[in-house]
Amino acid sequence: MNGIARLLVSAMLLLSACNTVETSPQAQKKATAHDPTQIQIDQPLHFAGPEGSDVIVQPGTYRVEQDSDSQLRLVSTAAAPPILLNAQAMSSASDVPNPVALGTLFESEVYHLVLLLPGNQALEAHGSTSGVTSRGGFDRSIVFMNANKLVLQQTPPQPRPDLVPTCLRIEQVNLGVSQLYFLHGGVVNQGAAAAGPSQARYAASTVPVQGLQSGQFQALVFSFGLVSPPSSSVQVDVANQVAESNEQNNSGQQWC
């Protein structure tokens, strides 16, 4: 009987310990980390705010929300006042069941923030570590003119465009019962002339790329649903729609 009693006491202690772990602050914190609209910002970033004002977003964890058709709202987990950012509506190749926020710093200079919305819609905003932001609304040519910090290769100025991919990041969004995978990348025109519309591809997924001025950048988001992205390279101008000064640098797999 003493041996049986000891076994019963041990089982009760084990169950009690398991219950303590499940209700601990660490477990609660892990549960809140499933919010797919949260992003982590690790350094001060400059964004364009309402009426073109310069808005500085300090490091921290933020929930990204749609405020209007042309604004995003950042809600800090530290109970700070919400921050409004100018944003641009765009179509998205990723049709998500619920809003998903992605944020990536490219080449330690340019930050791309996108809120993917159901129905193949999205809102995007661009920030900078250097404080270069637009004054009259959204303008990629102002935010991304510092092309020498975005390109993968330096080439002499040419009278033609030159499209190259930027670094890549795999974004894994935990929805609690399932996980969604996205590949966050970009394309930049490092040539000396404007480029017309083109296409970019990662594995079997292809997304459109708008016409880019010299030094201009466009972020790319490839959706893979429940499947982890394969090991592959981003290829820009896959249909050879743009006559470039260098046709040998249209693919790359450098990770952010």
CATH architecture annotation of the largest domain = Sandwich
Instruction: Enumerate how many helices there are, as a single number.
Output: 3
Q: Indicate the structural class.
A: mainly beta
Which regions are unreliable across 5 or more consecutive residues at pLDDT < 50?
Answer: 1-5, 7-33, 133-153
The CATH class of the largest domain: Mainly Beta
Strand content: 35-45%
Distance between the termini: 63 Å
What's the count of strands?
Answer: 18
Radius of gyration: 22 Å
Full CATH superfamily name of the largest domain: Immunoglobulins
The CATH topology of the largest domain corresponds to Immunoglobulin-like
Question: What is the count of distinct domains?
Answer: 2
Biggest beta sheet attributes: 6 strands, antiparallel
* String of helices and strands: HHEEEEEEEEEEHEEEEEEEE
The dominant shape is: globular
pLDDT average, as an integer?
A: 80
Helix content, binned percent: 10-25%
